[in-house]
Write a structure and sequence with these properties.
Order of helices and strands of chain A: EHHEHEHEHEEEHEEEHHHEEHEEEHH
Distance between the termini of chain A: 36 Å
Oligomer: homotetramer
Largest interface: A-B, 55 and 55 residues
Strand order of the largest sheet of chain A: 2-10-9-8-5-3-4
Structural class of chain A: alpha/beta
Radius of gyration of chain A: 21 Å
Number of domains of chain A: 2
CATH architecture of the largest domain in chain A: 3-Layer(aba) Sandwich
Largest sheet of chain A: 7 strands, mixed
Chain lengths: 385, 385, 385, 385
């Protein structure tokens, strides 16, 4: 092994992902002054384009930092001293989010499942019965460190029936699968996953109820980078920005949205689903195991593969990069060194990238485990999926 | 006048500024996975390059949002319940910063001067005598809404003599004029002004004393976008990032630093100074007044021009953009509609851009005031400055 | 003066010119295989867009080299052993073109005027009476080394009345001023002047008569880079290319055409005309002379300024670049060291660039001649033009 | 099948190829005036860099059009009325080149082999004995439509022993395999194949003998795009260009050379060889046949695969693009519909791209032939090669 790591030929991670070429071109557009009326018009048009494409009830808020900013700001802005939060935890990210929810709330309860399983409507109904005062339910849609996806639409109905607000982290699923915003009060996502942009922005789609709730929250940040409220009217040409927006990132988002609309969201979701199906079929045919306890739990935008006994994840990923130029993601926290993850997001959400990932995975894994692994079968299964 | 504003030909603002072409090209580089070892090496090299070019005592911290993030995070991280802050206020930004300092401190005092004047060492000495318990002094180096620059080096000596820590906002001066970090404990800047990058990152140069102070601060944020401490070791290849860095912006910063070093900081500062001198000479020869009470108070990176009685700043800037394609900046807060500002930052810090600004300013101003204004004299004075 | 020349801040030449930002972005688009059906569709769409925007009778031919290729290929393809050519010479480029026309023709006559004058319809009528067998008339529309423009529309009527074919070099005028193709049989231009692209392509608009004439020409090149005929059907998706087209340049042209159409050709021509008028007014008010014997002869896309006695053009241009960052063009051949030229093409065709050029010209010229030169008057005249 | 062809995900053709990201970024650099001294310095540095990297005896000439221009210009410039040419024909391109050599020569003989075979030193020696007056030998190094590579170094020795000049078309091999220029008098290549640039330039490496021969050639073009002689001194800063060079393409070439030198030519050649070896092993293991009569004849930069009886090449390539997003090349002329070709050039010269090509080839071919084809075996063989 040489001292220098080999540059990636294929970045098949759960993000940052490869950007679309249209996005890379757009990042190099001239940078405007934020009070230039031409830029203000652009920002308004971009915000309305976002609303139209997302089908959002109000104009989405763009925050000027990658989605962890959106998530922290959403928690700080929405959750107030009168709120009782129920945090749904099916993985590392959902669990961690509790740390941002709890300090702002009157109380926080958790509904936990194993990290290879998902939150079901029945479990949620029971939890709401146990915590009847719940005013806000928080959900991590795709808990990326596990590659598992929760049944958002069904859970949203349960929350709505209860009358609570639903706050969703859909950072790594939005844009790669259908998300209906009708029953979601605050959805946090970013353009840097399935939309194929670099990290640097958050997008928040907010219901009218959630706006009212934030405005009534005496502790909601104002005059801070953590404020959502400050940005309420910033989309309007002529209205001031709370601070300077990230112009180049916005140019990239603009190109990404145009591209997404031109290809057609349904077509984009379909190839994400096909790629994930190919990956899962290939993993199983190769002789490895999915992390998800049931295949139906596995996300359409990333596939988590359980590491065989004794295989070190760092050794595996190093070999994949060194010998095949393929970069994939590790686990995080409790899933670290128990699984590896292949992302299918944006420009790499095509089945051929599953073939590439399976090929590199097979080559590296074969040197680290005695378990018999079948490459030909894996690829044939992937292509037949 | 048409409904559509005319696109800017010359963005001569106090920021966002035009980017250098090298930066625009670099923004379109492929986006790497942040845990790709090649990227981690890049991030380490970039951080060390930043330290070398800045002459910083420790490896500077890059925060992933434009400098308002850096400023808010610096205040929250450095200032703790045991601190007595003296905030030096010579303008709108200095005054506003008090709002981020005060909530974290045991107490905060202010030293205020008129917004067309500067903080002098004598005033500061007196203030420290009045507030002997002061542990932290906060200074806005170039208070952009006034276009005035405080004598940083001399003030820093006074602070050091007192034994307090010095926290400096040098967002819109750093890179356009000499800044010696030896006596500064925390300097917040960003690549989006004189370095010619888009807005999207903050840079913090931090003394060893300031690191110790932050670590001893029980209220310093952790696990938040406002945390500085979380990023202490992030520059080291192999160390984890607190969250995903803004890869494209970092690529731009890398190109900007290379460019800055290749031209030579002294040469860069010299052309900023020459451009500002040209602008001031031109403004005076034209028959207008500088905002700064004394010319020596005027910044080398922006020039604020006092509006003649009865001239509306919006009308003025609209005419300049419509008829000449020249975009300049308005005042802010107390200086709004009392002055306009021409930035000389990065790629537009060349005297010819002062000629462009003066030409457009003359053309528009002549239609809004009866005061006699001389264009030829202005340009000749600018070129002779 | 340092050893290193100073990088240009303002490239105000007669070409290569600054490119539009949209073009620079488009040059970085991914490069397709030329037999990829998606590319073939793109090439067809681009060719038809070119026809629509130009108002051409047939689909224009794109040749894969800067316009000297187009000019040499046009001469070789159109002019055959049965042709009697009349070459109209009002400048260096028109004269030089005779060298490419004569070898292919049965005979070639020339109509010559002084290089600060233009070809008039009367002169042309007389020349055609003197050379009644003329089958092809060749005209350089804007003879760039003189900055003079011939009255294309009127001359075209004279040629049509005679029955000859009209071959026009409009490389440095097309896109910056109105050109009606109805009476032109072969117009050669390129995207690298007023359309704001880099040099690398030629565009030929060809009448049905000219196609017939080329096809009947037994000496017209085939199987050569000089062949126009080989490209007749290349625009059709599915038809083969004679050789690989210059993909990146075509991407740039595509963006340039979109930009041209979006701004509106009339608006583009108007700002070229305004900029040239500003430049001429400024030159005269400064105390210098236009090269053109009458102002009406001066081109809308470049302004030639007569050098005062004893002023060396190289010294002048070196000073302008060194001290102001402004790059302009020299004369060529017979006009070398007798004039200098300022281009107003594409992105620099705005009056403020005339101010920039006049400022630098004044500054440098003042050091090289004792003639009194007035800067203020020049700029005021330019802005009033 | 939809009406719209599907955009390529993988362009694995024999050119145009994908460009390196560094090249795409460089294409968007600002465009300079060609008489700007800074550009002239750049052009000189670039030319000398090219000489150094190529190991050329004289400064290589850059012609401003893709390599067909270089090939036509080389023939027209080098071959004169006193020359007896021996054209070595092992494929379609070698044969076609005769059409550009013959018209300029006193005589032209051909040495022909079947298009799946190569020219051997013995055959060449015999041909030179048969044509002892031969003054120039022309060789197509890699006859791309056959994917076969001639033994350049050995043939060059035979030519040198004879005393003739050797003119080599190495367009699609240079940069992907070792080429020693010592015994080559004129090598024509281009940056648009293994160097990973877009098409638009030719590069000619020329021996001192060949310069003398061209200068002594009374028919060598001058004042034409076909002239090589015109460009002899153009590389020198301060010397005029015969016409405007293609600035953006030169910027791309500059970045490509830097990248090539940084990776190291030996490393670049090695991965081209490994990828071709992987492809050949995979093709054979799949159950298909190489076009080359012997595997040793197959090129390191492209692999030609013989089409099974009854398989239509258009149907095959359409399926590969539609269902896998993989674009490969067809045959040309005599090889059309008898083979397909996968390029391994520049950024796609990595074995994983052979896996991608084999996967798509298998998927499409399986639907067009009853021949049993093994995907797993193919990929395993490719990876083991």
């Amino acid at each position: 092994m040489t001292a220098d790591p080999r540059p990636a030929l294929f970045t098949l991670t759960t993000g940052p992902v490869n950007c679309y070429p249209e996005v890379l071109s757009a990042l190099g557009r001239p940078v405007s002054y934020d009070y230039d009326p031409v830029f203000q018009r652009f920002y308004q048009d971009l915000s309305l384009k976002l609303q139209r494409i997302m089908g959002a009830a109000t104009v989405p808020v763009i925050l000027q930092g990658e989605p962890v900013l959106g998530l922290e700001a959403a928690a700080a802005s929405l959750v107030g001293p009168g709120d009782h939060v129920l945090n749904l935890v099916s993985g590392v990210y959902g669990a961690a989010y509790g740390g941002w929810l709890r300090p702002h709330a009157a109380s926080m309860a958790e509904l936990r499942v194993e990290y290879d399983r998902i939150i079901t409507p029945d479990l949620l109904r029971q939890a709401l019965r146990d915590h009847p005062r719940t005013t806000i339910v928080a959900l991590c849609h795709h808990d990326t460190p596990s590659g598992t996806i929760n049944p958002l639409a069904e859970l949203a109905e349960v929350v709505r029936d209860h009358g609570a607000l639903l706050l969703v982290d859909s950072v790594s699923a939005y844009g790669g699968t259908r998300v209906d915003l009708d029953l979601i009060d605050m959805l946090v996502t970013g353009p840097n996953k399935c939309l194929g942009c670099p990290p640097g922005l958050s997008v928040l789609a907010i219901s009218a109820r959630a706006w009212d709730h934030m405005k009534a929250n005496p502790a909601a940040p104002r005059g801070s980078i953590l404020s959502v409220l400050d940005w309420e009217n910033a989309w309007q040409a002529g209205a001031p920005f709370p601070f300077t927006p990230s112009i180049a990132e916005l140019n990239g988002l603009d190109a990404a949205l145009d591209r997404y609309a031109a290809e057609g969201p349904e077509a984009v979701w379909a190839r994400h689903a096909r790629t994930a199906a190919a990956m899962r079929a290939g993993v199983k045919a190769m002789g490895l195991d999915l992390w998800a306890a049931e295949e139906a739990f596995a996300a359409p935008t990333a596939t988590a593969i359980r590491l065989p006994e004794g295989v070190d994840e760092t050794a595996l990923r190093d070999l994949m990069q060194r010998d095949y130029g393929v970069v994939i993601s590790s686990g995080r926290g409790e899933t670290f060194n128990r699984l590896v993850r292949v992302g299918h997001m944006g420009p790499t959400a095509w089945p051929m990238y599953a073939v590439v990932a399976l090929t590199a995975l097979h080559g590296a894994m074969s040197r680290l485990t005695a378990r018999p692994l079948r490459l030909g079968a894996a690829i044939e299964a992937a292509l037949a999926a």
